[in-house]
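Quick one: structure tokens for this chain, please?
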Amino acid sequence: MSENDPTPQKVEKEQKNSSEKAEVKKTPAKKSNKSMWIVLGSIAAVLFLGFIGVIIAGIVLVSNVTKDITATSDKVVIAVQNEDSDSLYTLASRTFTDATPISEVVSTLAQISPLLKGSTFSVTSTSIEKNSGSPETAVVDYKIKTDDGTIYMQVTLEKENDTWELLNFQTSKTAFESDSSN
């Protein structure tokens, strides 16, 4: 036998060395998480933009609803200030006109209008209520600055045939409970 001939011990040693080398080569290289972060970032961006979109849509919807309510209730306040019973009665709901004769409106305005004539007013709160089986209602509170101080007015509207109409109104020298501005 020559020196170059493999002995069983040499073969075993060479096999052991080659398997260790093989094990070292089998360890995979560490992969980059860059693509995972790009995907997660994209998902987060889409969710964030969707959330912002929902908020904006909600604000626009609420703004449109309250715009109609405020427009009608402002007309009520102006009709009361101007002692305009015809305009007020035109803004009134069927519930109001069935319960309140025009003569009563004329009498009420004769008492209230002189106190409010020429004064400035601002909305202090608006609330909307929807109960099953009843028309939708809205309550708008006003602060009216007069020469003699502040008078508060509360206008209640009901939705009739997709239109906001006067259900009732009242005035007071103190803020109403629903009025958060005091």
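Helices lie at 8-26, 34-81, 85-91, 94-99, 102-116.
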